[in-house]
TrEMBL record:
It is an enzyme of class 4 (lyase). The lineage of its organism: Bacteria, Bacillati, Actinomycetota, Actinomycetes, Kitasatosporales. Catalyzes the reversible hydration of carbon dioxide to form bicarbonate. This is carbonic anhydrase. Binds 1 zinc ion per subunit. GO terms for biological process: carbon utilization. The keyword Zinc applies. It comes from Streptomyces mashuensis. It catalyses: hydrogencarbonate + H(+) = CO2 + H2O.
Length: 205
């Protein structure tokens, strides 16, 4: 995107979905992955989206959205849980790099959500800092249970929605960008088996 007009949030979202569709159908174009692009983006970056996703090894952003160097500013944690470093990174992508889209990417069969469901149900607890991850996912699991949701995809969707809400609640920078129409925040749920990324929630599109 060097020296190119900044896409609108809607344009950025459609670019992302188009790449995912190419990946799903087995016809990826692998854009911006050659030596010319490497040289082009060496002086500066202008990603069209910030992607905040789960660290799961099956969720490599540039692969599942068929993008390349300089396209996505990626932040990943187990269960896409956030702390100050995550918020600062996302704000940097929007306010400094000018990305018009923030994507929260969750997925089915998420280990962090499964571990949290077990902890809530059985009262078990994990050791080390894994416990912190579980504690941060717990509000989403409790909200889904309170609403009578029992399926895996229900818990995943609730956690994605909760993360989007939390982002906008905690980050004034991001909330103001959305209110001004400079950025949008969307939540997507990725299906491991077929590779599709499905919209769960959207703010500012």
């Amino acid at each position: 995107m060097i020296d190119a007009p900044i896409p609108t949030p809607r344009d950025a979202f459609e670019m992302l979905l188009a790449g995912n569709q190419r990946f799903v159908t087995g016809a990826p174009e692998h854009p911006n992955q050659d030596a010319a692009r490497r040289t082009e983006v060496a002086p500066a970056q202008n990603p069209f989206a910030v992607l905040f996703g789960c660290s799961d090894s099956r969720l490599a952003a540039e692969i599942i959205f068929d993008r390349g160097l300089g396209d996505l500013f990626v932040v990943r944690t187990a269960g896409h849980v956030m702390g100050p470093e995550v918020l600062g990174s996302i704000e940097y992508g929007v306010s400094v790099l000018g990305a018009p889209l923030v994507v929260v990417l969750g997925h089915d069969a998420c280990g962090a959500v499964a571990a949290t469901r077990s902890a809530v149900q059985d009262g078990t607890t994990a050791g080390g800092y894994v416990r912190d991850v579980i504690e941060r996912v717990t509000p989403s699991v409790l909200a889904a249970r309170a609403a009578g949701r029992t399926e895996d995809h229900d818990f995943i969707a609730e956690h994605i929605r909760h993360t989007v809400d939390l982002l906008l609640d905690r980050s004034r920078v991001l909330a103001e960008a959305v209110e001004a129409g400079r950025a949008a925040v969307v939540g997507l749920s990725y299906r491991l088996a077929d590779g599709t990324a499905q919209l769960v929630t959207a703010r500012g599109l």
